[in-house]
Amino acid sequence: MQSFQRHRRLRQNGSIRRMMREHHVSSADFIYPLFVVEGEGIKKEIPSMPQVYHYSLDQLEAELDEVVALGIPSIILFGVPEEKDACGSEAYAEDGIVQKAIRLAKERFPDLYVMADTCLCQYTDHGHCGVVENGAIHNDHSLDVLVKTAVSQATAGADMIAPSNMMDGFVAAIRAGLDEAGFENVPILSYAVKYASSFYGPFRDAVDSTPQFGDRRTYQMDPANSREALREAASDVAEGADVLMVKPGLAYMDIIRQLHDRFDVPITAYNVSGEYSMVKAAAQQGWINERNVVLELLTGMKRAGAELILTYHAKDAARWLKEAKE
Predict the structure, then answer these.
(1) Rounded to the nearest 10 degrees, what angle do helices 314-325 and 57-69 cross at?
(2) Most buried of 24, 45, 66, 221 (most Cβ within 10 A)?
C-alpha cells in the first residue's frame, strides 16, 4: 500500500483539535471603539453600523459598565463635536467631548485602558485630517495642531495616544510634544499603515467626516502598495512608535504579516466599519452564521500576526468566547 501522511489523526475529535490549535482569540486582544457626542440622554444607533451607537456622556457610563463586565480591557474614543471649524480646534479643547469622555472613563474605571484617536477629520468643517491652506493639506502646520491635541488628551488621562492622521513626521512631533509636557510614559499607537480604503464609509457617516473637497489620497496609502507600508512603518518605529496599526485589517492581512515579521513591536489590526457592516448585513439576511464568521475573521487577523484587534465586534465576540468556556 502506498505510504502517505495521515493528517486527519490530529483532527479526530474536539479535544485533539483544541490541543493542536495554533492561534487563540481572547477578549484580552480587543480594543473597543466608542463614539461620544455632546448632549444628554443620547444613545442613537448609527444607521450604517447596526448595534453601534452615538453616546452622550450620561449614557456612556452604562456602556462602559458592559464593556468592563465582558472582560474587554481597552477602549478607543472618537468624538463628534457640536461645532466644527477650519483648524479643528475642538480636538484640543480642554472641555472637548473626547477629553470629557476620557476623564469620565478613568474616574469610573481606573484600570480600563483608555486610548484616544488623535486626528482632525471629526473636528474640521472640511473633513480632512489636517490643516488646509490654499486648497491643500499643510503637513507641518497640521503637526502643530496634532501635538496640541495629543497633549490635551494625555492631560485628560488617556493611557495611550493613537494618531491616525498619516501626516509625515506625526509620530516624532507627538512624541516630542508628549515628552516636553511630562508625558514621557504615555505610549503611542501609530496608525502607521492606513490605506485610502473604500471600507471607511460607515465610519465617516458616524463622525460626519466625509471630505468636502478632493479625497485623502495625498496622505493615505494606495491599496495596491505593500513596500510603501514597510517604509511608513519603519519611519514610525524610528520616530518612537510603541505599537503599529494596519488599517483596514481584513483586506490587508498580508501587510499585517509583513509588519509582524519585520518589526519588533506589537502589531494591531483595525477591523474597520465597512468590514463590520458587511458582516452584520449578511447576518441580518440570514446568509451567514454571524458568530462563526466573526470568530473566523478575528482568528485570521491573529494568525496573520496581530497581537491586538480594534473591532466593533468586540462585545459580541467577548460574549461568544465566554459562552464557549462555560
Answers:
(1) 30
(2) 221
Q: Is 11 annotated as a binding residue?
A: no
Tell me which CATH homologous superfamily contains domain 24-245.
Answer: Aldolase class I (3.20.20.70)
Q: Contact, 194 vs 245, CB < 8 A?
A: yes
The percentage of residues in the chain with a pLDDT greater than 90, rounded to a whole number, is 75
- Rounded distance, CA 314 to CA 19, Å? 25
3-state DSSP: the chain helix, strand, coil percent, rounded to 5?
A: 45, 20, 35
Q: What's the gap between Cα 265 and its chain centre? A: 17
- Tell me how crowded residue 320 is: count the other CB atoms within 10 A of its CB: 17
Query: Is residue 261 pLDDT above 90, yes or no?
Result: yes
State yes or no: 232 annotated in a binding site. yes
Identify whether the C-beta of residue 143 lies closer than 8 Å to the C-beta of residue 155: no
Residue ranges of the domains in the chain?
24-245
Q: Is 87 assigned to a binding site? A: no
Please identify every residue annotated as catalytic: 194, 247
Q: Please give the single-letter amino acid code of residue 284.
A: Q
Do the beta carbons of residue 314 and residue 31 sit within 8 Å?
Answer: yes
> In angstroms, what CA-CA distances link 75 with 35, 102, 218, 256, 311?
10, 10, 29, 21, 10
pLDDT grade for 213, boundaries at 50, 70 and 90: low
Give the pLDDT confidence score for residue 214 in this predicted structure.
60
Instruction: Give the C-alpha distances (Å, rounded to integers) separating 308 from 9, 28, 232, 326.
Output: 32, 8, 19, 24
Q: What is the DSSP string of 124-155?
A: BTT--SSEEETTEEEHHHHHHHHHHHHHHHHH
Distance (Å, rounded) from C-alpha 59 to C-alpha 45?
13
Fill in the amino acid letter for 223. P
Q: Which run of H or E residues covers position 33?
A: strand 30-37
What contacts 135, CB < 8 A, 6 or more positions away? 213
For every residue of 246-296, DSSP letters joined together read EESSGGGHHHHHHHHHH-SS-EEEEE-HHHHHHHHHHHHTTSS-HHHHHHH
